[in-house]
Amino acid sequence: MSPTRPQAQTAVAPFPAPAAPAIRRQLAVTLLAFGSLAVAALVLAPLVGPEPIRLGRVFDRAIPFARNVDAQIFFIARLPRVLAAALVGCALATAGVVFQALLRNPLASPDTLGVSAGAALGAIIAITFNLHLQAGSLTTVPVASFLGAAGALLVVYGLSTVRRRGLSTNVLLLAGVTLNAFFAALILFVQYLGNFTETFRTVRWLMGDLDVAGYAPLAAAAPLVLIALVAIAFLPRPLNLLSLGTEAAASRGVDVAGAQRLALFSASLATGAAVALAGPIGFIGIIVPHLVRLLVGADHRLVLPASACFGAAFLVACDLVARTAFAPLQLPVGVITAVLGGPFFLWLLLRQAW
Amino acid sequence: MPDLPARAARPEGAPVVSPLASIADVTFGYPRRAAGAPPVLDRVSLQIARGDLVGILGPNGSGKTTLLKILSGMLAPHSGRVTLDGRPLTTYTRRQIARRLAVVPQETYAAFDYSVLDVVLMGRYPHLGAFELEQADDLAVAHAALAATGTGALAHRRFGTLSGGERQRVIIASALAQSPDLLLLDEPTASLDIGAQLEIAGLLASLNRDHGLTIVLSTHDLNFAGSLCRTLVLLARGRVVAGGETAAVLTPAAIRALYGVEADVRFHEAAHHLTVTPIASAHRPRDRSADVDRDALKAPRPR
User: Fold this and answer.
1) Domains of chain A
2) Which among A36, A135, B28, B67 counts the fewest CB atoms within 10 Å?
């Protein structure tokens, strides 16, 4: 800019306007790159593990399944686990993006807000008291988990609306700590009421474990995640504007209340489904969106699909480490994400310089 | 270089009687205020003529911001009517309103690292379908808005790295990208240094003059209002106490009534507009008087 202001006004040459906006190309590149990453993770991960398997044998129809150890390892031990990782990673990463835009704070995520803990409480109540109702593939645990997530999120969101500039990091972290402690206490109370076997099950589950038993839990969680993703598909541009503030969004034509309701509902649903399936796996909702933003920028039309794909690939990769690094011991994947996520979160906090 | 889509101000020959926007007999109070508290706006009526540049003046709490929110449909009045182009505002959807009028808040901060062009393109929101991507003409409108606000060179900067004045101009560009007829600004210069204030004043004057944009702004800065606005509306305790041409309204008597300040108002030859110099507070603040009982100040508070 030239030093004299009036001249600067006229000296700004009519900007050579490119013929077409970049978004079309960016969207194609983003979907292609992150989509292939997710597909590659899904295809490769089931082939890797402590026990080597041969792909030829896995799909060899000549050998009966009961005697085909390779196929058994592939279809029973590994594939459900990889699919669960992809589903949970996708759901938590996407929910993280939605939380961050809705609360206008890049440190918001299902676990920092206590929403995962709320979901865990819901799920644990359903597990401990054996509330097993089933309608089609839908079971009680994911629904209870969704209700817990929604309840926690409503509390956080209520806090954010009484403050005008969104949720400050201080309030957000304090609210998260409070909710996490509150739900942790209730979870302990519920565990105290349960018997020993149930308590052991819930403790393992609370570590964030993808060791799902077969395909039934997947079938229960997948439709909920799908519904959430379809709802989120309507949100990218409203979220872009909401991150400039509700007034700015409303004055540009966003139905603010409607968009916020849809965002709250879909993010709670995704978190609830993910937590019901695999326990409260931490930090996915914060690591993935941040890495994605470094790569594609801040536009939610790019960040949301890229986070969905990258979240899936990322948790599949973390789980691969969890089940191979200390083989034959299989770690809960929550340990891996926490070891990566804790320092990452601290680094983000320092970078914000508050 | 495409021009900002023409919203040629006054249709030639058309009767000037139909205002672009009007509010009639509007009363509004916020729900959480104590019972019996006076309403924030009390039977306010106002007409915004096409092509006008209107300033709303008034002390803190006089209802300026609320008035702008009523005009933009952000708040619904408890009683009274608000119209845009002769039609009740309640018959418009949020998107339809956003195609006709744009709002520039006091301050805008972006939670994420958007580029300036991203922010300006977001102004195209009300013109695009739910899954529609911006087309070449949307980009052209955005670049015209950048050019009109002198922010073309900032297009690829990060919004968060801009100075306050630059940021305000970019938000005005984003509002212009909505292709509005009416621009509402809430204290557009409140947090800016005088250089940036003059830039915003020049920008708004040229948008009004060259692009036929109707502008309504609220401000505390009497000199800003005096230099820029064609029409002034004075608000006090939720009521319109005066309104009309700037030269007729911006008088020492009005300033005394509004702010309790004795001021000198005169036409400045070099600046070529009315200037206001506050001289003294008309009400002597009590804590400055000599007979303050200083011991009373030290006395412990009653428990």
Assistant:
1) 21-353 (1.10.3470.10)
2) A135
